[in-house]
Automatic annotation (TrEMBL):
The gene is pqqB. The keyword Transport applies. The lineage of its organism: Bacteria, Bacillati, Actinomycetota, Actinomycetes, Kitasatosporales. This is Coenzyme PQQ synthesis protein B. Pathway: Cofactor biosynthesis; pyrroloquinoline quinone biosynthesis. Gene3D superfamilies: Ribonuclease Z/Hydroxyacylglutathione hydrolase-like (3.60.15.10). It comes from Kitasatospora aureofaciens (Streptomyces aureofaciens). Residues 48-264 form the Metallo-beta-lactamase domain.
């Protein structure tokens, strides 16, 4: 299995265009920028899938040599996109893929509905390409090209803001507005977990992480009060669907074995800096911060 980490920042990226905070200032000075959360995964190194489609997708694809088309063709190795949520920083890039001859998009039922109604990417894309929308159900594995298998696990009912009032059948109670994925390889043992929006360390997370080789997880905020302290607001990270690094680290330390990598870092997070404070504490729990462009081969 191969993984290319395309982007490691939360919505807005680092630096964010309208932010002059210490972290954004540091990124502007040093050039140590981060693009928005996105991953590419392949079972055989030839057929590739994106997990999420970030607003930075075009430059992310151009920076990944394995995602280039064969010379003289439009035969892209990209087979489809799996979504972990309907958030704009995970879906705006779908429009960037409109030149595709064909595109498979995997999403849970509520996310799929949101992307056909509240934010109608589905109808828009259908004017440009043949998009196949496939429903993902937590706990039911999906077989993908190249011997890759993806199994979603539910992470919570936090809707994107644009879909706050979307009517639906019982969707207020649904826990699959946000999901993670566990990837396994046909005939192989490699297991990779991707969960960029982790609100709580639930039994479903515990099961997904068990026996994994690599776990990429939510590193949006360092502490639950980080955003409130930086912006003077009142929003705490659990209410925003993000378990702070300080609060997930003890769970990692209890489950040694996988290589843990924090991703989806908000631009207020000091861990987004080069040589961040607190790196030693992460290392002690078998964790580190993922970097844009990181290639993992298992
Ligand atoms: Zn900032």
């Amino acid at each position: 299995m191969k993984i290319r980490v395309l982007g490691t920042a939360a919505g807005g990226g680092l630096p964010q265009w309208n932010c002059g905070c210490a972290e954004c200032g540091c990124a502007r000075r040093t050039g140590a920028a981060r693009s928005q959360d996105c991953l590419a995964v392949s079972g055989d190194g030839r057929a590739w899938y994106l997990v999420n489609a970030s607003p930075d997708l075009r430059s992310q694809l151009l920076a990944a040599p394995e995602l280039a088309p064969a010379p003289g063709t439009r035969d892209t190795p990209l087979r489809g996109v799996l979504l972990t949520s309907g958030e704009l920083d995970h879906t705006l890039g779908l429009l960037t893929l409109r030149e595709a001859a064909r595109l498979a998009v995997y999403a849970t039922a509520p996310v799929r509905r949101a992307l056909h109604r509240a934010f109608p990417v589905g109808p828009l894309l259908s004017c440009y390409t043949e998009a196949d929308w496939l429903t993902v159900t937590p706990g039911e594995p999906v077989e993908l090209a190249g011997g890759l298998r993806a199994e979603a696990f539910a992470l919570g009912g936090k809707r994107p803001r644009y879909a706050a009032d979307l009517p639906g059948e019982g969707e207020g109670d649904r826990t699959d507005w946000v999901t993670g994925y566990r990837f396994t390889e046909e005939g192989g043992a490699a297991r990779v977990v991707y969960a960029p929006g982790l609100a709580d360390w639930t039994p479903a997370v515990e099961r997904a992480v068990a026996g994994a080789d690599v776990v990429l997880l939510d590193g949006t905020f360092s502490t639950a009060d980080e955003l409130a302290e930086r912006t003077g607001g009142a929003r705490r990270s659990p209410g925003m669907g993000h378990l702070a690094v300080r609060d997930s680290l003890p769970h990692l330390a209890r489950r040694p074995g996988p290589r843990y990598l924090y991703t989806h870092l908000n631009n207020t997070n000091p861990l987004a800096r080069p040589d961040p404070p607190g790196a030693a504490e992460l290392a002690a729990a078998g964790a580190a911060v993922a970097e844009d462009g990181l290639l993992i081969e298992l």
